[in-house]
Specification:
About 55% of the residues lie in helices and about 15% in strands. It is α/β, with parallel strands linked by helices.
């Protein structure tokens, strides 16, 4: 059996464009006739096309009709298909498992790439119609609206009350408003690590305008209104007034400020020599056996080095020294995972790629919301389905710290 990976890029693209755009429609359970008839049509066409590709590359073989019609599963939906055969029996479509009854999950992954790389949802609709398929603009509109509602409901779901670690980061992006005017917007992503040491998306929310303390408050209040009560540690970048506000909304929580952002700010505010010395100091701090030892090293460096060169920035760091070092209160093996917002940075990179592929901006809120939901779904399916090793190795100690801090 020939695999998709062995086909040429042009062939792979053609197969992917047909079968996977249609698989995308499988996420809409409310238009069942559209789903069954349309997907069956497209799947059968893709199977025939793959046989054509095979025969073009194999001169000694010929087409030999179809196997008896059978049903395969796409989620909970059954699709009728006729599997094309070759005379030699060597050909079998790589889109199907030979003895299975399911459309391969890997094709959903290819689909995600198609959707995320589309410049707009309109271009997806144009591509589907360009295939000669009988999908009306109204049907496609139903699909995209359904996905938008699914994403919104996901962001409104109830949350577990207890979370060891929560990362929140804000990212600037460009978004079209209802009239089509492109404006600056700020997108907040909140990721939680649950008591089983697995990551979960807690919130994905976008606001027009600039980052502000009021928006940070809305984000945290949103989480609390949906059931969040106790958090062992909140990890964010620094923002004026955030530490005080977070302490009031999440009493008992440690607030860790991102050390990656700290290094970037140090580079802007201090000489190269002091910046490089601080980099060496951080390596020592990472190895400190206690918070007290780390705090002593940092405050000494601020007093002796930073303030002598930039007093106002030194005072700024002194006020936040504890927040930059809260990670040293936790198990050694978990520290590298909680001293920065890197857990969100990877998602921000994916969002940035989606923005560029959309033509430099997201055309509207629906497009942004659906594409981000697909990014998060992919993360949950691939990277987040297992416990994080750095946390799982210390799960008993993390649970003990949670109990000591908050009780039963």
């Amino acid at each position: 059996m020939q695999s998709i990976k062995s086909l040429s890029p042009e062939i792979t693209k053609e197969i992917s464009s047909e079968i996977l755009d249609k698989n995308f429609l499988g996420k809409n359970p409310d238009v069942s006739s559209f789903l069954i008839n349309g997907m069956s049509e497209l799947l059968n066409r893709a199977l025939v096309k793959e046989r054509e590709f095979y025969l073009n590359e194999t001169d000694s073989d010929k087409a030999n009709g179809y196997s008896p019609k059978r049903e395969i599963n796409f989620g909970t939906t059954k699709l009728p298909v006729s599997v094309p055969r070759s005379r030699s029996g060597e050909f079998y479509p790589s889109l199907l498992s030979k003895y299975g009854r399911n459309v391969g999950v890997e094709h959903l992954d290819l689909l995600e790439g198609i959707i995320l790389n589309a410049k707009s949802f309109k271009s997806i609709a144009d591509a589907v119609r360009g295939l000669g398929l009988s999908y009306s603009p109204k049907q496609l509109e139903i699909l995209l609206s359904d996905l938008f509602e699914e994403a919104k409901k996901f962001n409104q779901r109830q949350l577990e009350p207890d979370w060891p670690f929560i990362y929140i980061d804000a990212k600037v992006t460009d978004l079209g408003d209802e009239s089509g005017v492109i404006k600056k917007a700020i997108h907040f992503t909140a990721i939680g690590v649950n008591l089983s040491c697995k990551k979960e998306l807690l919130l994905s929310q976008t606001f027009f305008g600039s980052e502000s303390l009021e928006l940070w408050k809305k984000v945290i209040v949103n989480l609390k209104n949906r059931g969040l009560i106790r958090v062992l540690m909140l990890i964010t970048d620094d923002f004026a007034g955030l530490n005080k506000m977070a302490s009031g909304l999440l009493p008992g929580s440690d607030h860790q400020l991102c050390l990656v952002h700290l290094m970037r700010n140090m580079k802007k505010n201090l000489s190269k020599e002091i910046y490089e010395e601080f980099g060496l100091l951080l390596k020592e701090i990472y190895l400190c056996s206690s918070f007290e030892s780390a705090y002593s090293k940092l405050t000494k460096f601020i007093e002796e080095k930073v303030k002598s060169e930039n007093k106002s920035y030194g005072n700024y760091l002194s006020e936040r020294a504890e927040n930059y070092l809260n990670f040293t209160k936790y198990p050694n093996h978990a520290r590298s995972a909680i001293r920065s917002t890197n857990a969100v940075e990877g998602i921000n990179n994916a969002i940035e790629i989606a923005r560029r592929n959309s033509g430099g901006y997201f055309h509207n809120e629906r497009e942004l919301t659906v594409k981000l939901k697909m990014i998060f779904d992919s993360m949950a399916k691939h990277k987040w389905h297992l416990p994080i090793p750095k946390f799982a190795a210390n799960i008993q100690q993390i649970h003990w710290m949670f109990k000591q801090r908050f009780g039963e």
